[in-house]
Amino acid sequence: MGIRFDAIGIFVGNIKKMVAFYRDVLGLDIDWNEEGPHAEFKHEGIRVMMYERKLLPGYLGTEVSFPTGLNGTFELAIDLPLFSDVDKEFERVVGLGAQPIVSPRNEPWGMRTSYVADPEGNLIEIGSWGKGEPKSV
User: Fold this and answer.
1) Rounded to an integer, what distance in angstroms lies between the CA atom of residue 99 and that of residue 53?
2) What is the per-residue pLDDT across 31-75, written as a single tens digit (0 to 9) for each?
3) Which helix H or strand E contains 51, and what residues bound it?
4) Rounded to two decimals, what is the model's pTM?
5) Is the CB of residue 94 less than 8 Å from the CB of residue 84?
6) pLDDT tens-digit profile of 112-125?
7) Domains and CATH numbers, the chain
8) Do 8 and 48 meet the contact criterion of CB atoms below 8 Å apart?
């Protein structure tokens, strides 16, 4: 039996602000009553969960540390069908408040990519491998 990841958890400082960003800017569906330390988004294939940082040491029984500023420890990646979708989505989410980090660009490995950050500095890659691009004749 192989390992299959079921969820990604993000430990957040301000759960209401972060839920609002992922719901209103990125467009993820959520079932959350705006109370409690845990929120979970409904998403195809993998769950995205949030939990308040201040409660984590008590839950784990040990002290923990968190990055400050731009978080370079992980990224969430969005894969879009068309290269042109990268530019459109980048502009859309930046217009709604995402922090622009890397404007859309073509990478030498054949991907079009860009980066934004959420309100707490977590990196979100908006990219495409061009799988939906029309075949040239």
Assistant:
1) 22
2) 788 888 999 998 788 889 999 999 999 999 999 998 889 999 999
3) strand 47-52
4) 0.89
5) no
6) 999 999 999 999 99
7) 7-60 (3.10.180.10), 71-128 (3.10.180.10)
8) yes
